[in-house]
Amino acid sequence: MMEELAKVPWAVIAPLIIVQIILMIVALIDLRKIHATNGPKILWVFIIIFANLLGSIAYFIVGRKQS
């Protein structure tokens, strides 16, 4: 297993993981500050956390209620 981990191109994967974490944190902070969403807030929390990158992007596209 250690040999397999050594073969992983971490120079490519690490920035994607960092971007994913930053986007998730920003989405959760925005969700906490906003008053109206399309759907229940608790559902968006689960989508953002468990759907990873796509969940955060979906929140910013669909979840925020446009005024």
UniProtKB/TrEMBL annotation:
Residues in Cardiolipin synthase N-terminal domain copies: 22-64
Ranges annotated as spanning the membrane: 12-31, 43-62
InterPro entries, per the entry: CLS_N (IPR027379)
Top-rank taxon, per record: Bacteria
Organism of origin: Lysinibacillus boronitolerans JCM 21713 = 10a = NBRC 103108
Bilayer topology term: Multi-pass membrane protein
Subcellular locations according to the entry: Cell membrane
Alphabetical UniProt keywords: Cell membrane, Membrane, Transmembrane, Transmembrane helix
Name of the protein described by the UniProt record: Negative regulatory protein YxlE
Pfam families attached to this UniProt entry: PLDc_N
